[in-house]
Amino acid sequence: MLRPIRAPLPHRRRFRLRTATATAAGVAGLLLTGLAAAPALSAAAAATTPDPATRVVVRFKHGTTPAARTAALAAAGVRSTFPGAGGALVGRLRPDTDATTAAAALARRRAVAWATPAFGARVAQADQAPLVFDDPGTTGPDGTTGGWLRRQWDLTGAYGIRTPEAWELARKAGGEGGRGVTVAVLDTGVAYADRGPYRRSPDLPAVRMVRGRDFVDGDDFSNDEDGHGTFIAGEIAAAANNGYGMVGVAYAAKILAVRVLDQFGQGSSFRVAQGIRYAVDRGAKVINVSIQLTDQNHRPATLTAAPDIRGALRYARQRGVSVVAAAGNDGVDTVPGRSYAWLSIQVGGTTERGCVADYSNTGPGLDLVAPGGGSDSRVQPDDPRCRPNALPGRAIRQVTFRAADPTRFLVPDGYAGTSMAAPHVTGTIALMLAARTLGENPTPEAIAGRLKATARDLGYRGPDRSYGAGLLDAAAALGAAPLPAG
Fold first, then answer.
1. Which residues form the signal peptide (predicted)?
2. 194-225: pLDDT as tens digits
3. What pLDDT sits at residue 227?
4. Of the residues 209, 274, 306, 315, which has the fewest C-beta atoms closer than 10 A?
């Protein structure tokens, strides 16, 4: 019988996992229900989730007096505030006021630069099948090596991203596995260290884990309480040849864990904005945001829909930091092509057959796609790779844990979504930076341009709303000859 990887418990302590009640107090923001296409929150969880209409985010113009701020906030129904990102304030509303009305009232004030209802944030994961036990490391059940080769189609398959070739190019250039590059993971946290009931993932070496910040509970211990963030970190930087789990795209990069989502995968736009600025200030060179937003009416929105996040993205870009974002999992055309789409790299998801996945959001602002697993879409019915009536292709696999037991590390067989697609791009950027593919300090514009110029054209000829510039080709991004279209 195959067994899970279990981290040892050095001693027993009475240490309780932080509850939804405690977490809700730390979030103090717009928390919407559930993982995308996953079961709704339990009654206990829902009972502790703040009402989506109880927060507004506002930024006053420079020079506004405290008296003017107080008067404007009170007139709009704001009962108290706390700091947001980039000089913004997050307002808690009176019970008789909703966020849309309050934001509109504030926006009419001359002293206000902008005001918006807080957006909900959630993990951009389309499916979460039950976890199954799997053989650890790169040794298969039959004793042969190369277990990850059979499991990680996203790295080596016909419609994978060609990581073996990319790894060799990075090694020859002196940047093996993304060594020396710090990647920030904004998510539910990361299993980065042993602390209380939490254990470090055996596939994430301690020497490459950088303790970050927990913006949910307001401390410096960004331990994962859900498992999603650990999965994402593994996709980016899981160790190679260590006898555990899988392999990450940038298997020698450093991971900076920034917790902005709670144990249910929920959060708020202002925490995401704070997390981006923090990651930049802590020295991250690329930031992964496998998160999607929802507005006050529960409609899907991209990161750039929130003004405070736009400000944080500009802050990152001005300092040479690339931000990679999941396009979202509602299967709708919502990735805008407006002037601020360039602030982040928007990534859609593809299946094992090279078809855009049925959950993947599309639109003119989509930059490119990467493997996310799951079922084929019907958006391009004449695409020969797409078989929407066939069984789903394989999902993405990495080491993570169940939220109920953060000491038991397993390999789930069923994670799919643009959450899983984005880390492929993030890891490739880490390889490019370590290998100095574009020189010593390439701009985010140059990096995005390189990724799109070397992507494998899929779907209609040239860039389109479903695939963007095409499927990520890590090898071509690092200098190999690109693959032909299709």
1. 1-45
2. 999 999 999 999 989 998 999 999 999 999 99
3. 94
4. 315
Q: What residues act catalytically? A: 187, 228, 419
User: Could you tell me the residue range of the domain that residue 75 belongs to?
Assistant: 23-118
CA distance linking residue 445 with residue 344, whole number of Å: 10
Q: What is the DSSP letter of 455?
A: S
Residues of the chain under the 50 pLDDT cut: 1-52, 128-145
Distance CA 332, CA 178 (A): 34
Q: Is residue 210 located within the same domain as residue 306?
A: yes
Number of domains in the chain: 2
Same domain, 360 and 246: yes
Q: Which amino acid is at 444?
A: P
Q: Is 90 helix (H, G, I), strand (E, B) or coil?
A: strand
Given 88, 118, 148, the domain boundary residue is 118
Q: Are residues 162 and 68 in the same domain?
A: no
Domain annotation covers residue 11: no
* Amino acid code (one letter) for 13: R
Give the model's pLDDT for residue 424.
99
**pLDDT value, residue 134:** 33
Residue at which a domain ends, from 87, 118, 149:
118
Tell me if residue 259 falls in helix, strand or coil.
Answer: strand
Give the residue from 486, 477, 481 showing the smallest Cα distance to 161: 477
Q: Is residue 15 part of a domain?
A: no
State the CB neighbour count (10 A cutoff) for residue 94: 15
Q: What is the pLDDT of residue 123?
A: 62
Judge residue 326's burial from the number of C-beta atoms within 10 Å of its C-beta, 0-12 exposed, 13-18 middle, 19 or more buried: buried
Q: What's the pTM value of the predicted model, to 2 decimals? A: 0.78
Block residue for tokens 């890590």? 474
Q: Single out the residue of 309, 265, 386, 287 nearest to residue 119, CA to CA.
A: 309
What's residue 139's pLDDT? Answer: 34
Structure tokens that stand for 11 in this block: 């001693």
Give me the CATH number covering residue 154. 3.40.50.200
The vertex-94 CA angle with 89 and 99, nearest 5°, equals 60
Q: Are 85 and 228 within one domain?
A: no
- Measured in whole angstroms, the distance separating CA 470 from the mean position of its chain's CA atoms is 20
Alpha-carbon separation of residue 366 from 166, 185, 276 (angstroms): 24, 21, 21
Say what the pLDDT of residue 16 is: 24
What is the pairing mode between strands 400-402 and 405-412?
Answer: antiparallel
The reported pLDDT for the residue numbered 135 is: 29
Q: 105 and 169 share a domain?
A: no
Q: Pick the closest to residue 122 from 40, 21, 231, 33 (CA basis).
A: 33
Q: What is the DSSP letter of 341?
A: G
CA angle (242 as vertex; 239, 245 as ends), nearest 5: 70
Question: Are residues 159 and 306 located together in one domain of the fold?
Answer: yes
Q: Do 111 and 135 have their domain in common?
A: no
* E strand intervals along 101-216: 112-117, 120-123, 127-128, 131-132, 182-187, 209-214
Q: Residue 66: which CATH number?
A: 3.30.70
